[in-house]
Amino acid sequence: MADSDHPVWQLALKLVPGAVHDIEPAGKGANSAVHRVRTAGSDYALKLYQAAGGNNVERLEVEWRALSFLRNNGLHQVPRPIARSAPDCCLVMYW
């Protein structure tokens, strides 16, 4: 995906540390979509919560808190959360 005007690019530019080089779809479920965001130094997962029903921000916050709790308590097998945006219902983690 090379369209820097695309909403996913705009979110990546806003939330991912470093210059974004490329974005590619990495999976889509019934209630979220994941994109792999590549920078010069790292790859990131940009997860978009998109299910209808109005609980997207709640799901985002639950996942953010769970990943943060697990990482802070020594479980480094889970992705490290990097940034989140409640208004955009999205979360960035290390790939």
What does this structure look like?
By secondary structure, the chain is α+β, with helices and mostly antiparallel strands. The protein contains two helices and five strands, in the order αβββαββ. It has helices spanning 7-15, 56-72; strands at 20-28, 32-39, 43-49, 81-85, 90-94. It has a five-stranded antiparallel beta sheet with strand order 1-2-3-5-4, sandwiched between helices. A hairpin with a 3-residue loop joins strand 1 and strand 2 (32-39). It is globular, with a radius of gyration of 13 Å. The two termini are 17 Å apart. The model has no long low-confidence stretch (mean pLDDT 90).
Q: Descriptors for this entry?
A:
five-stranded antiparallel β-sheet, single chain, 5 strands, 95 residues, alpha+beta
Largest sheet: 5 strands, antiparallel
Q: How would you classify the helix and strand content by structural class?
A: alpha+beta
Q: Averaged pLDDT, please?
A: 90
Outline type = globular
Radius of gyration: 13 Å
- Poorly predicted runs: none
User: Which range best describes the helical content: under 10%, 10-25%, 25-40%, 40-55%, 55-70% or over 70%?
Assistant: 25-40%
Number of helices: 2
The count of β-strands is 5
Layout of SSEs?
Elements: H1 7-15, E1 20-28, E2 32-39, E3 43-49, H2 56-72, E4 81-85, E5 90-94
Antiparallel strand pairs: 1-2, 2-3, 3-5, 4-5
A few lines on this structure:
The protein is α+β, with helices and mostly antiparallel strands and 95 residues long. It has helices at 7-15, 56-72, and strands spanning 20-28, 32-39, 43-49, 81-85, 90-94.
